[in-house]
């Protein structure tokens, strides 16, 4: 994977909030979270939590898993940008024996 995956906060902002003309304040109230919490999420300062994924899924009639999958792809991509170089592979058992 070469291209950085899109942050789920950006997807929520562009695909949910903007088309519905929702402010951060209004959307936060509807989700039952603080304005600061939602602002940090949509401005990509905070990762998506499982709790927020559940809140968004209930509010948008989508699956929490789909939102968490976006976050997981982004988190893994970020980690892959700093892959450890000091890992020694485990010796694999010879599956051809027997």
Give the topology, please.
Layout: H1 8-17, H2 24-31, H3 35-42, H4 50-60, H5 64-80
Helix pairs in contact: 2-3, 4-5
Number of helices: 5
Main beta-sheet annotation? none
One letter per element, helices H and strands E, the order comes to HHHHH
Please give the number of β-strands.
Answer: 0
* Alpha-carbon Rg, integer: 19 Å
The geometry reads as: elongated
Mean pLDDT level? 95
Q: Would you write up a description of this structure?
A:
- It is a single chain.
- This protein is an all-alpha fold.
- The protein contains five helices and no strands.
- Helix 4 crosses helix 5.
- The protein starts with 7 loop residues before the first helix and ends in an 18-residue tail after the last helix.
Quick take:
The protein is mainly α.
Keywords summarizing the entry:
0% strand, mainly alpha, 5 helices, elongated
